[in-house]
Design a protein that fits this description.
Length: 375
């Protein structure tokens, strides 16, 4: 066996093995029936904000409109020094919709992670929900999230599932919808085994006693939160019945910025918590986190190297064979322009993971948000 062929096989083996496991998980994992809560406890809802004047009133109104008792909700808006009317509109919305709430304005802009830390620290209830300003909860979302959280004392946090809303069909919306069609099932499978840390930040219900402050200057707030809670000895669960709605941007530039931001911060959180790869943390430490590490750092590199190596190897027999590999790869990559499909979405996901490594090592923790729009 030639060295070139051997290298081509090895570089293909790891990506194929990792994703075959997750494909099997997507196919065979059954969604939970859900645990709706019977006696809703008092909760604190933390909403980090920065220039959210287009959506903040609508977000607070949604807290009143869902099935969870309004008198059991206290909201804390933690503002990251907005330069628009976010703070004033939030105050007006609390009064207008009769939602108990307060606003904390930070001394300087320090990013979402520090806003989450401050909001959870300020909460006066045992159960805290963190969310974003540009999403809305489905009517029973908190019932399912908190019901699952309280179903087992070993569960420290539960996240909900994104239901993407498409305003205008485009390559970006099609790619994201294809990706989201399998994302939740992957996380549900991990939850069945032990825990997932690939949380959806716009809906996380947690026990305050399980929470530890997350690093202010690196890592995604949602993944960092989950990893700290797992470190503290609790499980983190994905609850697909706890749904929230968010627009998917049809603008390619905005999607690229959003995907790279999310990928780089997820990679940061993973690398920062690499010492959780240990039998001390059960199957999460011995199976889930190692596979996610490979998925985020090793697979993207090996995937593209493998395509190049197979193309070069087959070209030794006939240049056409090598060109077929390149053409097939390019065709799969751009096929999402005409019809959304998981293969195109997968390849683009590997592209974003590669590019996000650059930003991860820059240590960038304050980003420009994409355009906001009421759901």
């Amino acid at each position: 066996m030639s060295l070139l062929l051997y290298s081509a096989i090895i570089t293909a083996a790891i990506p194929v093995s990792i994703y075959l496991i997750y494909i099997a998980a997507v196919i065979f994992t059954k969604e939970n029936s859900g645990n709706k809560i019977k006696n809703p406890p008092d909760i604190t809802v933390v909403i980090p904000t920065y220039n959210e004047e287009k959506v903040i009133e609508h977000r607070i109104k949604n807290l009143r409109d869902i099935n969870y008792p309004t008198d059991k909700i206290h909201a804390i808006v933690v503002d990251d020094r907005s330069s628009d009317n976010t703070v004033e509109l939030a105050k007006d919305a609390f009064d207008k919709y009769n939602v108990s709430g307060e606003i904390i304005v930070k001394d300087s802009r320090t990013g979402t992670n520090e806003s989450v830390n401050l909001g959870v620290k300020s909460a006066r209830t045992d159960i805290v929900v963190t969310t974003d300003a540009d999403v809305v909860f489905e009517d029973n979302a908190l019932d399912y999230a908190i019901g699952t959280l309280l179903s087992d004392d070993n569960i420290g946090a539960v996240c909900g599932e994104l239901e993407p809303i498409v305003k205008e069909k485009s390559f970006t919306t099609g790619s994201e919808k294809a990706y989201r069609s399998v994302y939740g099932k992957m996380c549900t499978w991990e939850s069945h085994i032990h825990s997932t840390y690939c949380f959806n930040g716009p809906l996380i219900a947690l026990r305050k006693k399980a929470f530890s402050p997350i690093p202010a200057t690196h890592g995604a707030s949602d993944a960092g939160m989950a990893l700290e809670i797992i470190r503290n000895g609790y499980r983190c669960i994905y609850e697909a019945n706890a749904k929230f709605y968010e627009y998917i941007t049809e603008n390619l530039t905005q999607q690229r910025r959003q995907k790279i931001r999310r990928s780089s911060r997820l990679q940061e959180a993973t690398l920062h918590n690499i010492n959780l790869i240990s039998s001390k943390y059960g199957k999460f430490g011995t199976l889930i986190l190692p596979m996610r590490f490979l998925m985020f750092f090793v697979v993207p590199v090996m995937f593209f190297v493998s395509v190049i190596l197979w193309s070069v190897f087959l070209s030794q027999f006939n240049i056409v064979f090598g060109l077929v590999i390149i053409a097939g790869f390019a065709g799969a990559l751009i096929s999402g322009l005409w019809s959304s499909n998981i293969l195109s979405s997968f390849i683009w996901h590997q592209v974003y993971l590669l590019f996000s490594l650059r930003y991860m090592f820059k240590g960038k923790h304050i980003w420009q948000a994409i355009d906001r729009e009421k759901v």
